[in-house]
């Protein structure tokens, strides 16, 4: 019985060869060890056995330094671990796309993506880039693979999926859909004209209509009261005078002897004729005629003709008047 126990102990101390390792990351090393050996001994009376340790050497096959056995394969070991990647070589991580750093625990810097974060993103106009694929995530108001195409005038928002509601030629903000009204209009969708007395961008300026006139709700022109002639430019608020009137507010009639737009023409009335101060349409008057903007020359008694240079005959002591 003692012999069997000793034999079992000897078998347990002999190293088992690693024959099932399947890759080349294996190394051999020689190991010196003491091996118990059973020796027989005898005397005159009896024969016996005893265990004697002997110095032996053996070759150990195992994973090389930096590698560890995993499912019968010697795999590299990264002591710090690889957070988003795998261990490629001892203490060397190979990171998944979108990750970087010694432990693969750092995302790609903005503007870069892919394996080892070496690819540069093509995104524009504030768009973010997927650190994994490089796909652009456009900001509101932009479209296209590189986010370099602005939304059309009638669309806005993320990937230009929303329809603008702006009216009357207003410009739609491509990001949030807010309306930038044309001069003369107001309201959330620019569907309202400026209130009476206001004009211009955002209806922020006062219209200079005077003497009870009010700005037209559509175009800003002054609706003059009786006896006044002018229109208000609803873009810049200036007065547009009718023919025969002048002044900042069109409050002055043309000076005597002038007529027309901005009183730029001369009325050549002869023989004492005068242009009416509030008229002056193109005509030439002579012989004390008066020049009317609608009818031409208004002749004095005794004269007729287109330019009123012919004296009328005396009919029964009466003269025709024009």
TrEMBL record:
Keyword check for Hydrolase: no
Q: List the disulfide bonds.
A: 138-147, 181-190
Pfam families recorded for this chain? EGF_laminin (PF00053), EGF_PEAR1L (PF23301)
Q: Which InterPro entries match?
A: EGF, EGF_PEAR1L-like, LE_dom, MEGF/SIB
Q: Where is the signal peptide?
A: 1-20
Where does the EGF-like domain lie? 118-148, 156-191
Q: Which key words tag this protein in UniProt?
A: Disulfide bond, EGF-like domain, Repeat, Signal
Superkingdom classification of source: Eukaryota
Family membership noted in the UniProt record: Belongs to the MEGF family.
Name of this chain's protein: EGF-like domain-containing protein
């Amino acid at each position: 019985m003692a012999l069997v126990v000793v034999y079992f102990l000897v078998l347990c101390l002999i190293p088992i060869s690693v024959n099932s390792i399947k890759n080349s990351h294996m190394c051999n090393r020689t190991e010196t060890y003491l091996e118990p050996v059973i020796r027989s001994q005898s005397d005159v009376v009896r024969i016996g056995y005893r265990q004697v340790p002997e110095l032996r050497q053996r070759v150990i096959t195992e994973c090389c330094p930096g590698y560890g056995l995993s499912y019968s394969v010697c795999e590299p070991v990264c002591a710090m671990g690889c957070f988003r990647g795998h261990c490629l070589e001892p203490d060397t991580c190979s990171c998944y796309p979108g990750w970087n750093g010694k432990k693969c625990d750092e995302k790609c810097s903005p503007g870069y993506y892919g394996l080892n974060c070496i690819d540069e993103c093509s995104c524009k106009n504030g768009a973010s880039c997927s650190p994994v694929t490089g796909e652009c995530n456009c900001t509101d108001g932009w479209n296209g693979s590189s986010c370099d195409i602005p939304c059309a005038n009638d669309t806005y928002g993320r990937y230009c999926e929303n329809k603008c509601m702006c009216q009357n030629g207003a410009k739609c903000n491509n990001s949030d859909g807010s309306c930038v009204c044309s001069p003369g209009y107001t309201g959330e969708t620019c569907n309202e004209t400026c209130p009476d007395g206001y004009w211009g961008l955002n209806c922020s300026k006062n219209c200079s209509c005077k003497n009870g006139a009010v700005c037209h709700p559509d175009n800003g022109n002054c609706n003059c009261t009786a006896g006044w002639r002018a229109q208000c430019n609803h873009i810049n608020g200036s007065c547009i005078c009718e023919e025969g009137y002048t002044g900042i507010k069109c409050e002055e009639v043309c000076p005597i002897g002038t007529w027309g737009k901005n009183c730029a023409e001369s009325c050549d009335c002869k023989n004492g004729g005068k242009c009416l101060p509030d008229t002056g349409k193109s005509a030439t008057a002579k012989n004390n005629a008066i020049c009317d903007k609608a009818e031409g020359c208004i002749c004095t008694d005794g004269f007729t003709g287109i330019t009123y240079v012919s004296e009328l005959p005396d009919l029964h002591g009466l003269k025709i008047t024009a």
